[in-house]
Amino acid sequence: MPVITYRQALNDALAEELERDEKVIVMGEEVAEYNGAYKITEGLWKRFGDKRVVDTPISEAGFIGLGVGAAMMGLRPVMELMFWSFAYVAYDQIINNAGCVRYMSGGLINCPLVIRGPSNGGTNVGATHSHTPENFLANTPGLKVVCPATPADAKGLMKAAIRDNDPVCFMENTLLYGEQGEVPEGDYVIPIGVADLKREGTDVSLIAHGRAVLTALAAAHRLHEEFNISAEVVDLRSIRPLDEETILASVRKTHRAVLVDENKPFCGVSAQIASLIQERAFDDLDAPVQRVCSLDAPAIYSPPLEALQLPTADRIIQKVLAIS
Amino acid sequence: MSVTRAEKPKKTGPHPVDYAKAAINADLTTKQKLGFLADMLRIRRFEQASLKLYQQGKMGGFLHLYIGQESVAVGTIALMGEHDHVITAYRDHGHALGVGMSMNECMAELFGKATGCSKGKGGSMHFFAPDKNFWGGHGIVAGQTPLGLGIAYALKYQGLKGCCLTFLGDGAVNQGVYHESLNLASLWDIPVIYIIENNQYSMGTSQARSSAIKGCLAERAEGYNIDWDTVNGEDLYEVRAKTWEAMQRAHEKCRPTLLEIDTYRYYGHSVADANAKKYRSPEEIEFYKQNHDPITLWEKRLREEGILDDAGLKTIDDAAKKEAATAVQFAEDSPFPELEDIYSDIYYEVDLGTEAGQTGRHFFND
Hints:
The complex is a heterodimer of chains A (324) and B (366). Chain A has 324 residues and is α/β, with parallel strands linked by helices.
């Protein structure tokens, strides 16, 4: 199986879907002639041309709204946000239009739109460029939210997102773009709404999404090496729809859960997971559910401090030891 | 009334003084002309009936009445061909009826009934009929302006000769997304026609207190290199002539247009607008009703042309009133949605029971 980067996996998925379906268009700031601010779309403009791969002005509300309108008409736009932080100027288009138009029209209209881009802190760019709005977006019935952690998941979920007939918010991570991993060849599609066990274990469940999965895996490795604790790592992959059964099965096996989440703690994704576990697996728990989230402040610029603001393996290990 | 209609700048042209002689109007049949009268009366009678029932507590939420503006929706929408589409804001009853939606489905939607056009899930501000090229019905001021752009973009992408009539109020022109849309429309040669229905008030704030302009709102199009014009909305012939010119520009040159159509609403921003008669004088409203009512003026015009008399008018008006009364009865008799209907029409994949709709939990109820 070829080993490629997360970036290349996304690029392959986009190219394959552009090739497969003429209704797919890729649009966003610097996606075409510049080859993508983060090179996710590298080579696509040259290969597919002006009609399929389109540079936009810096105008998120305008071009995301355009994408919604085009999707209502049956096109399958894949809109790049250079950062998901920039979604905040297009919230009306994402929430009210993409998220609600099917409902408000009594099912007459659907919106097969993908909005994609990086959604992460940890790159020392300050609060305005470091937001992780997966919790906000997953709060809107009508939207789907996907957060792949590995190259294989990035490819398989991107292809599923483009083929989905509902709007999908696809959240990547600039710190993952260079990560390498095995990616199956051929038409590799992963259903949205299916979690993945990234590591099996017996003593504690580390439940995470996005880059926090890699942090959890690093913690699991050290827990095994240094403390002889067997940690299982559950990768949510999709926030909405949510694979609750995989979460619950893991907790019922290990009886302990530490939720790892680059969201801020208040109403973060992990808050929803904690609610689920206490409601449906309360009697299986041997200890209170613990959370390791980003420290609850706007993203700090100072590089050594920002590294500590995000969940770290050390903080995960401390939480695990506290309940073991 | 900061700028009178006569004083407003006009851009495109030249036009005949009498727009009845414009090419798009010259060949109209008697049946078509009477049809426009019927269409306008349908809107008015529907809304008068809905107002009465709103005041009786038969419906919730807001009711933004279009009464006084009927010539705009009817004059423009009647020009639409197979690949022409329309989208508007929350004052959408006129456009909905204009594209041919039935009064039954519209009235039932106001009542929140399952037989409504949106199954009682949208309400007054959210009527849709994509089978009639009508894409809503949008609640956030100017929120529809980039959607209309996207609809027109999709037409061009598919190589279809069409356009999207994208309506907005004069209160929408200061929203950022509208300006983003104008920029994209011109930059990418998108066949969208923005139609400002200028009824002079954005809720309770007059145009003079809300918009910094030189001559008129449409003139801002100059900054985006978009063709524009102002239109006397009370003259159905002028509305048709100038809109058709814009549609031809969209069809033949794939270029956008910005039209500002002067009109007037008789009721408040919504029926719940407590200050409807405070930010403007009752005399002003009465003046418009007496001198600028688009239905009265069209009726007068048809009488002058010798194709309408009292009996003819009564026949048309009675039919509109009867259709409205029937719609009220239909809405009254219709059932409300069931509790489980709350959870349908959210995700396409779930509704259709596809494979993608069956993985993971989509709804998070107790």
